[in-house]
Design goal:
The chain is an all-alpha fold and about 260 residues long. The protein has one domain: MetI-like (MetI-like fold, Orthogonal Bundle). The chain contains 10 helices and no strands. α5 crosses α8.
Length: about 260
């Protein structure tokens, strides 16, 4: 009963908040362009479902491509620099600098490099930049977390760097890498939306463009409906990565 109550609590809270929102909008006669009630957002979700679903697919596709690129580049670079302490000390500050630099600051430059006719490539590149650091940091931290006794055992048997990497450090790094990938999945969606906002061409026709379009026309119910799709998209990707991570770790443990 307790487990059921715990699962039901978020739904009850959401229902309560939506009910209060609906009542406040109607009792206070809030203009619909300022803050529409949940019922108006629900209508927009139904009426604009084909358009929003198409845009959500575009954003999802770009986020997935960005996540794959970030995983390959970030994970590959982490493995490469882990083989050399000097290389790690040289690369890590640059990776941190990329992480702390806002995407909106470098977006105009990437859009210029990609060209206005290649807005989708620019969006994917910027989203990959946003998702890069969690993967890089997770893999590198995992590679450096191997058991010290096992490291000495590999020294005793004269294992070279590649043998040590493949047989000891990569298996140790797997949980760290999967956690970094989970964090990166959310950042890939955020990066794709921010990049589309900045590119401003509308070529990609993702959810960010629907947000801009609805906001400029004061179609607030549609704007909030697009936000609902965006939140669902980020949640779906995060849950998919988390479920995949659990399955991989379960298979690894042999259970």
């Amino acid at each position: 009963m307790t487990g059921f109550a715990h699962r039901l609590a978020p739904l009850l809270l959401l229902t309560l908040l939506l009910g209060l929102w609906e009542a406040a909008c109607r009792l206070l006669h809030v203009p619909i362009y300022f803050l529409p009630p949940p019922s108006a957002v629900a209508v927009a979700l139904v009426e604009r479902a084909p358009v929003l679903a198409s845009s959500a697919f575009q954003t999802f596709r770009m986020a997935i491509q960005a996540l794959i690129a970030a995983s390959i580049i970030g994970g590959g670079l982490a493995v490469a620099v882990s083989l050399s302490p000097i290389a790690e000390r040289a690369v890590r500050p640059l990776a941190v600098a990329l992480q702390v630099t806002p995407i909106v600051a470098i977006a105009p430059l990437v859009v210029i490099w990609a060209g206005l006719d290649n807005a989708e490539f620019a969006v994917i590149a910027l989203a990959a930049a946003a998702a890069f650091f969690p993967v890089f940091s997770g893999v590198l931290t995992g590679l450096q977390s191997a058991d010290a006794d096992l490291e000495r055992l590999f020294d005793l048997y004269g294992a070279n760097r590649i043998q040590r990497l493949v047989r000891l450090r990569l298996p140790t790094a797997l949980p760290f890498a999967l956690e970094g990938l989970r964090v990166a999945s959310g950042l890939a969606v955020i990066g794709a939306v921010v990049a589309e906002f900045v590119s401003g061409t509308g070529q990609t026709q993702g959810l960010a463009w629907r947000l801009l379009e609805a906001g400029n026309r004061l179609r607030t119910p549609e704007l909030l409906a697009a936000l609902v799709w965006l939140a669902a998209l980020g949640l779906l990707l995060n849950l998919a990565v988390a479920a995949g991570s659990r399955e991989i770790l379960k298979q690894r443990s042999g259970r």
